[in-house]
Amino acid sequence: MLNIKTPVNYINKPDIIGRSGLYIKEYGNQAYIIGGNTSLEIVGTEFYDSLAEYGITYKKTILEGHPALNTIEKHISDAREFDADIIIAIGGGRVHDVSKVVGNSLKIPVIAVPTIAATCASWAAVSIIYDEQGAFEAVIPNQYTPKLILADTRIIATAPSRYMNAGIVDTLAKWYELHPNISIAADNITFHITDYGAQLAFDILREYGKKAVDEGKQGVVTDAAVKTIDAIIYLAGFVGSFTQKEFYGGFAHPFYNASTRIPGTRKRLHGEKIAFALIVQLVLENKQNDYIIDAINEFKKYELALTLEDIGIKENAEEEVRKIAFDILNEFSDFSKLGYGNSVAEIVQATFKADELVRKTLSEQIPEAV
Question: Residue 290: its pLDDT value, please?
């Protein structure tokens, strides 16, 4: 059976934040707002004034820590006590993951207001749950996505570049992880739809991503920024909107999930670590060196974590990589049907080979691919 879960409306305009009430009022008038401390300030008084203009009462709450189950339960209780009829999520992935579970639990609409483009969490129907220390615990499949996404492209494009850098590579990963499954899904129409979507996002980001980041640092929002934000939120979200019995994925996200169990890695953003994990995947796939070097040089543009040390694994590296490999195979091994990464030893060897190849490439011991 095929399920398709998408928002009702996705609005991507600069300064749309000042007209939020106009769109949100269609879904409710008693809003429980969940946001990061910085994000709740970034949207500015114009956001809250717009809610008031359209008769929307609200209560602001700050999300502290990781999206853990006890945190979610607290927000469910508080939103119920407030008698909320909508949830508004303002911020990044953690905020949206919590808000989606809260809204789905209370059976009320969620409105997503992303202030960064580090993931497609403001669109996705799933929520990623961690423990209180930041270790991955589970993926919760929500019944619904947010009903409305208000993507103020000026706020998102001019946020600290670290977030868009991470979002770009996390979105590139959609194609790197999905496309190899064509060897086992050639007759699956839904697979081809998602593969085409991932390819389109990939092509857009290769052409416009770096330009959007550079312009954002200067406070400039052009068509490059809009295309980049759409690729990260809309296209990557679209790719994940189709769920069916068969799962077609790759190695990089399982590596990320397992790596969160290593405390030293938790200072890195999701997309930052995905970059290194993708390089490991390419090694496991036995891609030619020039192909892997091309990927490394593309990722290098975005100031990411490209080595084991970068992602927070330095001392006890052998032990920690073995733990990651063990967890991958025991909890996230769907990718192994593609014929690679079927043993701890294979994953460990590929991880250290990827680390070595990155170091050589970045030190220019290997010339950049032409």
Answer: 95
Percent of the chain with pLDDT over 90: 92
C-alpha 273, offset from chain centre: 11
- How much is the pTM? 0.95
Element spanning 34, H or E: strand 30-35
How many angstroms separate the CA atoms of 193 and 200, rounded? 11
- In whole angstroms, give the CA distance from residue 159 to residue 217: 8
Given CA atoms 321, 326, 332, 333 in this order, what sign does their dihedral have?
Answer: positive
> What pLDDT is recorded for position 248?
87
Chain centroid to CA 131: 18
CA distance 105 to 103: 5
- CB burial of 156-182 (b: ≥16 within 10 Å; e: otherwise) equals bbbbebbbbbbbbbbbbbbbbbbbbbe
DSSP conformational letter for 41: H
3-state secondary structure of 5: coil
pLDDT given for residue 369 in this prediction: 46
Q: According to the model, what pLDDT value does residue 247 have?
A: 81
Amino acid letter, residue 356: E
CA distance 278 to 250: 9
